[in-house]
Amino acid sequence: MNLFRIGTRGSALALAQTGMIQKGLSSRFPKVEFRIETVRTSGDREADLPFAAIGAKGIFVKELDDVLLAGKIDAAVHSLKDLPSEVTKGVELTAVTTCVDPRDALVTRDGRTLATLPKG
């Protein structure tokens, strides 16, 4: 059986998202073993520091890109919100999944919903 290694962060959200990808790939390619490899990123290691102190660009992506480029994993799963606007040289964004529930991206100080936000 062929082995395909999928890299991801170790957060609960990243592991859940990657598990969905793994399940979909496994059902489509049953002769391939899809293994999840967790990678600790600088954003994970320095979780108590403000993003600006770490160097906010790509703090949840850089290490995954590094292990991908080194051939230690075959693909990486990222939350689109974590990707910088410029993809790392040598890495290609090849797929974007459908969003199950877009409300998971709204955070407000006072608990407002999308429907109650003012226009603009």
SSE layout and pairings?
Blueprint: E1 2-8, H1 12-28, E2 32-38, H2 42-45, H3 51-54, H4 62-69, E3 75-76
Parallel strand pairs: 1-2, 1-3
Give a brief outline of the structure.
The chain is α/β, with parallel strands linked by helices and 120 residues long. It contains four helices and three strands, in the order E-H-E-H-H-H-E.
Please give the count of helices. Answer: 4
Kindly estimate the percentage of residues that lie in beta strands according to DSSP: 5-15%
Distance between the termini: 53 Å
- Strand elements, count: 3
The biggest sheet, with number of strands, parallel, antiparallel or mixed sense and barrel status, is: 3 strands, parallel
In what order do the strands lie side by side in the largest sheet?
2-1-3
Low-confidence stretches at least 5 residues in length (pLDDT < 50)? none
Report the radius of gyration as a whole number of Å.
Answer: 16 Å
